[in-house]
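Tokens in:
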């Protein structure tokens, strides 16, 4: 994980965690990254989660070989990175803390002190000279908290990207799916709402020569991996379509809605759709379904009428999409309603405030189980989805 001769990794892996940020399943653990930049002056880039303070300080001690850091750069105040700031100041009382003005306000809330005598306040374009390494700070508000700064090192051409470009999974877990799979679930789960803010940062990053991206979570991305990550972030943050295909999500009480949804998937494939990503919303990881909804340009939602409206799992799922600014998509609906189907009306209303959404005119309504008309309704819907 060493980035260069003078930038060493001092972060930690967490294999005890089950839910990251209290809601994201992380079966392969989580990494809290931190880096030491060794020059005439020494800077530590961010702290780690509160459970790993001792290990982090020990990593710093080993990397610094008897020297003391001059600066702790705090790019982000969420507790998985900021928890050990006070401990750092107790271990290295002469070090300064480099951060945004808003981050110091947050430190006061968190630690009861804003470390006034140690503050170095930085903003967009501020520089910190370490020797050969000059750090330039980039304001990255709402990626995904308001105080966030990123940092560019012009010597090794590294973008320290705070949470940006992070992924789920510990660094000692060799993810066979590569960076993108869990980075996509991470992006849409945590950052997805803030596409416009990410776009603003990408525009600034386009003016930099970036050889390496060093995020606060997941692997360091070098050369081609960094380029590919920048390409995907541009698609994701502009709510563009990454892959050609259909995301088909259903809930089913007795299996009838599931059967109709799966029949639609068969018809779509038979008509040449390159990929139909089908999931049972009640059983699949919610954020796998969120990432697939954003990955493809077409979304089919199939659900049951419940309490005169939309089945709860589906209702909650649609909120996950709309609160993340879901947009630029074609959506088709299938509903089941034993005596008074109401789910399509409810789902349609839930997307009313969403931008650039096309709802398919063909709809499929099932009353308990398939009727003689269901197959032809599914055929027409499939044609409209693929048009
Ligand atoms: Fe990794 Fe927003 O904290």
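Residues out:
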């Amino acid at each position: 994980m060493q980035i260069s001769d003078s930038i060493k990794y001092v972060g930690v892996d967490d294999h005890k965690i089950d839910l990251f940020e209290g809601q994201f399943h992380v079966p392969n653990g989580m990494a809290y990254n931190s880096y030491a930049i060794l020059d005439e002056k020494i800077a530590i880039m961010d702290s780690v989660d509160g459970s790993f303070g001792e290990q982090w300080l020990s990593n710093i001690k080993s990397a610094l070989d008897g020297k003391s850091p001059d600066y702790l750069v705090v790019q982000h105040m969420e507790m998985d990175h900021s928890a050990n700031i006070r401990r750092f100041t107790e271990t290295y009382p002469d070090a300064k803390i480099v951060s945004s003005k808003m981050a110091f306000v947050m430190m006061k809330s968190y630690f009861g002190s804003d470390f006034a005598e140690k503050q170095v306040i930085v903003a967009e374009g501020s520089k910190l000279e370490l020797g050969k390494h000059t750090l330039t700070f980039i304001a990255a508000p709402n990626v995904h908290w308001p105080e966030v700064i990123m940092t560019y090192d012009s010597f090794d051409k590294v973008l320290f990207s705070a949470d940006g470009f992070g992924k789920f999974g510990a660094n000692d877990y060799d993810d066979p799916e590569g960076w993108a799979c869990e980075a996509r679930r991470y992006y849409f789960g945590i950052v997805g709402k803030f596409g416009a803010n990410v776009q603003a940062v990408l525009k600034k990053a386009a003016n930099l020569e970036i050889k390496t991206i060093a995020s606060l979570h997941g692997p360091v991305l070098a050369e081609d991996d960094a380029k590919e990550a920048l390409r995907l972030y541009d698609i994701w943050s502009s709510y563009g379509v990454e892959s050609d295909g259909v995301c088909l999500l259903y809930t089913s009480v007795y299996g009838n809605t599931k059967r109709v949804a799966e029949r639609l998937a068969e018809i779509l494939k038979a008509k040449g759709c390159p990929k139909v990503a089908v999931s049972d919303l009640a059983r699949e990881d919610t954020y796998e379904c969120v990432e697939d909804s954003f990955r493809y340009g077409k979304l089919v939602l199939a659900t049951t009428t419940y309490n005169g409206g939309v089945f709860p799992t589906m209702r909650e799922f649609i909120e996950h999409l709309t609160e993340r600014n879901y947009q630029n998509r074609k959506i088709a609906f299938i509903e089941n309603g034993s005596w008074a189907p109401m789910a399509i009306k409810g789902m349609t209303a839930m997307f009313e405030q969403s931008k650039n959404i096309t709802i398919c005119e063909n709809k499929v309504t099932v009353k308990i189980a398939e009727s003689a008309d269901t197959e032809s309704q599914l055929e027409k819907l499939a044609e409209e989805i693929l048009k």
